[in-house]
Design brief:
One of its GO terms (cellular component) is plasma membrane. With about 450 residues, the chain is of the alpha+beta class. It is about 75% helix and about 5% strand. It has three domains: about 100 residues; about 140 residues, no CATH class; about 180 residues, no CATH class. The chain is built from 14 helices and five strands.
Length: about 450
């Protein structure tokens, strides 16, 4: 019985009307509340049903209006489609009539469109546009107008194409000077006088300029060509209307761009890496030794020649020191004198031939070091091929450069060292030959006096 009361109380709380907040105290009150809640719920349902019936009629009206509008739009669409088809037929007929009336002029306007587009592209990359900016804009507009629609060019537009071509041809044969903004190699911008040589090159302050792609602005080349070309640029600026020699690029900058990319002497030496530096160091050492030997043997040869004209022995030259042996041993026999003279000559030979062997060694070692650099460079090249393949030649350029540069450096050092060794060795042998000749004369003279 108690459980039944609890269930009825819970049910009453669920279905009670919203305004009934008082808790029932007995079963009679609970029954009254249930009756009131049922009545309120029935009244709410009736109101919703009435509202739904009213809205159903409104929805039917909206549906009828939408159907009517759809029918109207379908009629409009059919009428427009019919009108569009008629316009298409009329347009095709007009185009056929236009084509028949134009005749060969259609090909003319097609060529005009192509020429206008090509000329605009050429003018954008022309040095003349720096002096006369904005020349390509009108030609671009003409080409786009004739390409995007069937509009024909006017007489003025046709004349503008002819004028642009004639101006380009005329300016290509002129050397013009004007002022414009130039971007320096350090990024700064300044206005300065510029000399334009036709459509080929531009120079300012003795330096070559390049046209910035897609603009009418110019900038200094970050890397300038060799001094012989820069000298011609300076001569052009100082010519005062006199003919001068000038380094002209007929391609409008393409060859000049490739020329400045070529590595200089220092860059080529750097490509030789460590082996190249060692070869050059040996070459410098050998050159210094050869210079010292050349000066020493020249002075020594002059003293020997003076000694040949003087019977009195001088101690400042090898021949004088050899001749002094005769005076030192005036009473010895011929064989003893011969041995003494040979000893004196052998004592002078190291002074005469000093360091010549080192020069010869350098002439032999230099090409071997070059071969070592070549092998090392090829090893680096094959390693790059193994890692990255042969798709990009720039990856192999470093090893190939080292291989070739070290070979060249080795030959550059070896050839002069070989020639210097041959020259100095000949001079030293001549001096030794003079000593031997004079010693033989002394022995012969002593022998005759003994007899």
């Amino acid at each position: 019985m108690l459980k039944l009361k609890h269930c009825i109380a819970a049910l009453a709380l669920v279905v009670a009307a919203p305004g009934m907040s008082q808790e029932p105290v007995n079963l009679d009150q609970l029954l009254q509340q249930l009756k009131a809640g049922k009545f309120a719920q029935s009244q709410a349902n009736e109101e919703r049903e009435a509202r739904f019936r009213a809205e159903a009629a409104q929805q039917q009206q909206i549906l009828r209006e939408a159907i009517a509008k759809r029918d109207q739009l379908e009629q409009t669409s059919a009428r427009l489609e019919s009108q569009f088809e008629g316009n298409e037929r009329d347009l095709a007929a007009l185009e056929d009539a236009l084509t028949q009336r134009m005749g060969s002029l259609k090909e003319l306007f097609g060529v005009l469109q192509q020429v206008a587009g090509d000329t605009a592209s050429n003018l954008r990359n022309s040095y003349v546009s720096v002096e006369f900016p904005g020349r390509s804009d009108a030609l671009n507009e003409l080409a786009e107008k004739m390409g995007s629609s069937s509009k024909l060019a006017t007489i003025e537009e046709i004349e503008s194409v002819w004028f642009a071509l004639q101006q380009e041809m005329t300016e290509s044969g002129k050397v013009s000077e004007f002022s414009t903004e130039v971007t320096l190699a350090n990024g700064e911008k300044t206005t300065k006088p510029v000399i334009r040589v036709g459509t080929f090159n531009m120079v300012a302050d003795g330096k070559y300029l390049e046209l910035i792609p897609g603009t009418d602005a110019v900038a200094e080349l970050v890397r300038q060509p060799g001094s012989r070309y820069l000298d011609t640029a300076e001569a052009l600026e100082q010519s005062n209307d006199n003919p001068v020699r000038f380094g002209l690029d007929p391609t409008g900058g393409s060859i000049l761009g490739l020329l400045v990319q070529a590595p200089g002497l220092k860059e080529r030496i750097d490509q030789g890496s460590t082996v190249g530096y060692i070869i050059l160091a040996l070459g410098v050492i050998g050159l210094l030794i050869a210079l010292e030997r050349f000066v020493t043997l020249t002075l020594m040869g002059g003293k020997v020649k003076r000694q040949l004209k003087n019977d009195k022995a001088q101690q400042d030259n090898p021949l004088g020191r050899v001749m002094a042996v005769k005076d030192k041993y005036p009473d010895v026999d011929t064989e003893t004198l011969e041995l003494k003279l040979s000893e004196a000559i052998l004592r002078e030979v190291p002074r005469i031939t000093r360091n010549l062997t080192f020069i010869k060694i350098i002439s032999v070692v230099a090409p071997l070091l070059g071969l070592l650099g070549t092998v090392t460079g090829m090893i680096n090249t094959f390693q790059a091929i193994t890692l990255f393949g042969t798709g990009d030649p720039k990856l192999m350029a470093g090893g190939i450069s080292q291989a070739l540069v070290t070979t060249v450096l080795g030959l550059v050092v070896a050839i002069p060292m070989t020639l210097l060794f041959a020259t100095l060795n000949t001079r030293s042998k001549n001096l030794v030959h003079v000593l031997q000749e004079q010693a033989s004369g002394i022995i012969a003279e002593r022998s005759e006096r003994g007899h």
